[in-house]
Amino acid sequence: MEDLSFVPDLPSGPLDKYRKTSSFDWKRLKLALEGDNIELLKLKYKIWLTLEKDPLFAHSTVSPSVDEQKRITQLQLKRINEYRFHTTEMVNSSYSRRTRTIMTINEAVQSLNPSVSVKMAIGIYLFSNALLSLGTERHHKFYESTFVKRETVASFALTEIAHGSDARLMRTTATYDPQHKQFVIHTPDFEAAKCWVGNLGRTCTHTLLFAQLITPDGTNHGLHGFLVPIRNPETMETNPGLIVGDMGEKIGVNGIDNGFIMFNQYRIPRENLLNRTADVTEDGVYESSFSDPSRILGAALENLSAGRIGIMQESCHSIASAVTIAIRYAATRMQFGERDNEIPLIEYELHQWRLFGYVSAAVVFRMYIENFAKIYLDIVEKSNSGMKVDNLSEAVSEIHAMVSCSKPLLTWTVLAAAQQCREACGGHGYLKCANLGDIRSNHEATVTYEGDNNVLSQQTGNWLLRQFESARGSRSVDSPLHTVAFLLDWEKCLAARFRCTSTQELKTREFIITTYKWLLCWLLKQTHEKYEAQLAKGLSKFEARTKCQVYKWRELTKTYAEYLALIFFLESLDKKDKELQPVLETMFCLYGLWSLDQHLVELYQGGYSQGESLARLLREAVLQLCAALQPDVVSVVDALAPTDFVLNSVLGKSDGNLYQNLQKAFFSQPGAFERAAWWRDIVNVRSKI
Ligand SMILES: Cc1cc2nc3c(=O)[nH]c(=O)nc-3n(C[C@H](O)[C@H](O)[C@H](O)COP(=O)(O)OP(=O)(O)OC[C@H]3O[C@@H](n4cnc5c(N)ncnc54)[C@H](O)[C@@H]3O)c2cc1C
């Protein structure tokens, strides 16, 4: 058995009461949540314990000004680079190992300061990844300076003021000038200014720009990626020909300097076109390995899959922190009962029901994404190294469909969890030093960036419907990852009916998976029929899709994402330590039934069940599972939690000394006991009282 003594023991205190009832060793679960990769778990602790000792990472009790947050974030990124957690050995290792390690560094940093991890993800990883996949030899020096030497911080400029979700209609142009062998970048008006670009406002020296490529004959070849210098790296002055600004204060991640930019006939060398899939000769002739320009954009944006997986991993860490704080608070906070025998909140069924579903989501999501990331990295590695990957293009489409619905499911669930955890900590949860407010507002933007959730999940619907049509027609599906192989038996799946008579029968893999398959087939059939009916009315495919989103397409993609989380979790569960399997099985059933509870309307509407028993038994089973989880739940969050320094919550400390910690926080608040500096402004001098 691996030696886990590098994970610090937890202090003894009021939480012991619930830790003693646990059925498993929390450190073993912690390792399991890290994909049983002890090196990665060690790296995470090394990062956390190193940064804890560095004054640059000390938490401030009051929010610094927005500008100061940007300065600190940039300095923290610089310091993290200097610590070289990304060792030379790691930098030179295989794609899969290198990327998994980067992801771990990112996760560790995100739990401490999400602005730093976003800055790092865009400024280093997204940029350097794009150079590798879209660029060629000639761009390698930029990869070296960004990823290997960490001298450059970059940005990713796609969104424009008037166009975000529909990238095809972006209006920034890059026109080739054969005489000077340069591209001329131009912004026609403010509506075409690039905006929201992270790191652009103050700190980046280069950007990866997406602009419409126009050749001298006037042909527009669609959006392409260009490497564009923005600032002089020595003076940080913006280059002439650019209008660059910072977008100002946001409602979260204020350490990131999101910016806007307008180009005025700004020239860059021809070589700055990222030319792996398409190039322009010196004379201005366009050459591409794709005949369809939209496929070039598709290939370019495919890069975002790794970024979206990164967002999901970060989300898993945000929900882990949120539920840790709320559960530790619930175990130490008493309300009602007798004077000397008050009841801890965690004992109340209502409180369990509000929180435990999110605890199970935190565990299920973490193991799902861990498992999925491995498969994803393996496929990319094989394909990059020229090895044969069976059905590669089908696998890429399936992965894109999976990512496009899973990022919405995870980011939305985490947002709801953060809000519920905040409320579950009552008034004290509203304190800045509880950290739930920051977790929530720093997380919130993930539902929008790298693809707005509502728009992104529509792409999953397209893929699912294609598979359904193919299963109905030619009796085949393109699902190399086997996520929808069951559609070949869609009629059989749809014939399933609810026949359980006890909650015991619902708390099983078989019931949950069969019910999900029924739901998916039913939602697919319904969506397909509605879509076909719209087409039959003469609507275009685009118009027909817009008429099928509500209650159909959207519900379908959410259900598919939940199903993915469950099947990938199960696959991991079976490989885990025997001691951990019972609690993981409880998590599986709780997440599965808690999610199915939200689909009762469809289950009845589609005739899966009649009468009251499904709703009654399902809800009874959820409550039974909450009760069953209660003895283990404090240890589950111990396994999910980062160190106390990283968690940074007065309510969530692992010693459980809630009131001593609160007193310390109140009493050490700067100026807490001082007369207000503005006391004269409020004194009524004539008062004789
Ligand atoms: C903190 C933050 C950081 C960001 N960082 C970057 C960055 O570094 N680089 C970059 O290029 N961009 C960045 N963005 C921009 C981000 O990627 C876009 O905001 C996002 O893609 C959504 O585009 P939009 O804002 O234009 O929304 P819109 O497309 O205008 O969408 C508005 C609303 O309309 C809905 N909607 C749109 N189309 C449809 C439809 N067909 N059917 C139904 N509903 C629809 C959407 O669901 C959404 O709720 C960032 C944004 C934020 C908030």
TrEMBL record:
Swiss-Prot/TrEMBL GO biological process terms: fatty acid beta-oxidation using acyl-CoA oxidase; lipid homeostasis
Record bears the keyword Transferase: no
Subcellular location: Peroxisome
List of residues binding FAD: 159, 198
Ranges of residues in domain Acyl-CoA oxidase C-terminal: 510-683
Start and end residues of each Acyl-CoA oxidase C-alpha1 domain: 304-465
InterPro entries in the cross-refs: ACOX_C_alpha1 (IPR055060), Acyl-CoA_Oxase/DH_mid-dom (IPR006091), Acyl-CoA_Oxase/DH_mid-dom_sf (IPR046373), Acyl-CoA_oxidase (IPR012258), Acyl-CoA_oxidase_C (IPR002655), AcylCo_DH-like_C (IPR036250), AcylCoA_DH/oxidase_NM_dom_sf (IPR009100)
Residues annotated as domain Acyl-CoA oxidase/dehydrogenase middle: 155-264
Cofactors named for this entry: FAD
Principal localisation: other
Similarity comment text for this entry: Belongs to the acyl-CoA oxidase family.
Record protein name field: Acyl-coenzyme A oxidase
Native source organism of the sequence: Trichoplusia ni
The encoding gene: LOC113508797
